[in-house]
Specification:
The complex is a heterodimer of chains A (233) and B (134). By secondary structure, chain A is an alpha+beta fold. Chain A is built from six helices and seven strands. In chain A, the strands form two sheets. In chain A, strands 6-5-4-3-7 form a five-stranded antiparallel beta sheet. A two-stranded antiparallel sheet of chain A has the order 1-2. In chain A, a hairpin with a 5-residue loop joins strand 4 and strand 5. Chain B is an alpha+beta fold. Chain B has four helices and five strands. A five-stranded antiparallel beta sheet of chain B has the order 4-3-2-1-5, covered by helices on one side. In chain B, a hairpin with an 8-residue loop joins strand 1 and strand 2. The longest helix of chain B is centred in the last third of the chain and has 30 residues. Chain B is elongated, with a radius of gyration of 22 Å. Classes of the chains: A alpha+beta (233), B alpha+beta (134). The interface between A and B is medium-sized, with 16 and 9 residues. Chain A: This is Large ribosomal subunit protein uL6 N-terminal domain-containing protein. Chain A: Belongs to the eukaryotic ribosomal protein eL6 family. Chain A: InterPro entries: 60S_ribosomal_eL6 (IPR000915), Rib_uL2_dom2 (IPR014722), Ribosomal_eL6_KOW (IPR041997), Ribosomal_uL6_N (IPR005568), Translation_prot_SH3-like_sf (IPR008991). Chain A: Keywords: Ribonucleoprotein, Ribosomal protein.
Chain lengths: 233, 134
């Protein structure tokens, strides 16, 4: 009846068990004060006439009906959850990359980006892996940790790794190939500086642990007799 | 060849199957042809089939079905732990456990150590070879 939503009313009839209230109908009639409402209204329960319906604009029947009845897909309000980071992976953990160009490389984990991908670095001087994003599923987390104090990785996010937008070029017949080649190879200087700034601190803490540098420089591989499900990483 | 390790009260055995795999237990009583009552300091006294036990050389001096206190005292007196860990069988198990628990970094350091040792051995060998040749 009412157009606006009412506040959910508290029942004055507590449940003894589900489906059985404490008070009987007559008791509830008295508790709700319906006798008082009736008395106020001269012995009859007050009654309201229906509200005049709001004027709806005249809807003309459509000129055109599509030939087939096409079903509309159901509404999907499902929002993807942020990727859960494995408990074994914390900043400074050494990870083993399992797929891609750097498969087998042991790499230092920096932080998890908002897209869920992991930000890692070689460090570049040690094993040639630059600041890079890697998916958690393609990584083994080892229990070896590098001292991560003092390293600041706040400035890196997914936008940092987005591909640079290429401006549309006018097709000149002769110059076409040469111009393209020149643009692709140069890595902007800021990226090289970022790499250095992150790596110098890391390399210092890596060098304090004996053999850790050679460990990060070497690739991981399975040898004869190694059973991955029995190995402790 | 006669048998050297007998099933007897006080024989220390290693459990080789089941929940208690790898535990050292003492045979405290024999139930029947196939089963023994076994006990260890950190477990509830229970029965076990002989097939689950591998007898060791160690034997302690106890009466049949001793109280737990007496069993512990007898094990201390015989120094079962030390005897086991110094025996070659016990040492092998300890090494196996250690190898299985090696971390990826530890395994790498092991490889480096093996290479280093092999280098030293080769050096010495080549020196000896030179002496023989000369």
């Amino acid at each position: 009846m009412a157009a606006k939503a009412t506040v959910p009313r508290k029942t004055r009839n507590p449940d003894l068990i589900r489906g059985v209230g404490k008070y009987s109908r007559s008791k509830m009639y008295h508790k709700r004060g319906l006798w008082a409402i009736k008395a106020k209204n001269g012995g009859v329960f007050p009654r309201h006439d229906a509200r005049p319906a709001a004027e709806t604009a005249l809807v003309k029947p459509p000129k055109f009906y599509p030939a087939d009845d096409v079903k509309k897909p159901l509404v999907n309000k499902h929002k993807p959850k942020p990727t859960k980071l494995r408990a074994s992976i914390t900043p400074g953990t050494v990870l083993i990359i399992l797929a891609g160009r750097f498969k087998g490389k042991r790499v230092v984990f920096l932080k998890q980006l908002s897209s869920g991908l992991l930000l890692v670095t070689g460090p570049f001087k040690i094993n040639g892996v630059p600041l890079r994003r890697v998916n958690q599923s393609y990584v083994i987390g080892t229990s070896t940790k590098v001292d991560f104090s003092g390293v600041n990785v706040d400035k890196f996010d997914d936008k940092y790794f987005a591909k640079a937008v290429e401006k549309k070029k006018k097709k000149g017949e002769g110059e076409f190939f040469e111009a393209e080649k020149e643009e692709k190879n140069v890595l902007p200087h800021e990226k090289k500086d970022d790499q250095k700034s992150v790596d110098t601190l890391l390399i210092k803490s890596i060098e304090t642990v004996p053999d850790l540098k050679t460990y990060l420089a070497a690739r991981f591989s399975l040898r004869s007799g190694m059973k991955p499900h029995e190995l402790v990483f | 060849m006669p048998f050297k390790r007998y099933v007897e009260i006080g024989r220390v055995a290693l459990v080789n199957y089941g929940e208690d795999y790898g535990r050292l237990v003492v045979i405290v009583d024999v139930i029947d042809q196939n089963r023994a009552l076994v006990d260890a300091p950190d477990m509830v006294r229970s029965q076990m089939n002989f097939k689950r036990l591998s007898l060791t050389d160690i034997k302690i001096d106890i009466k049949r079905v001793p109280k737990k206190r007496e069993l512990l005292a007898a094990m201390e007196a015989a120094d079962v732990k030390k005897k086991w860990e110094s025996s070659s069988w016990g040492r092998k198990l300890i090494v196996q456990k250690r190898r299985a628990s090696l971390n990826d970094f530890d395994r790498f350091k092991l490889v480096l150590a093996k290479i280093k040792r092999a280098g030293l051995v080769k050096n010495e060998l080549s020196k000896l070879k030179k002496e023989v040749a000369a």
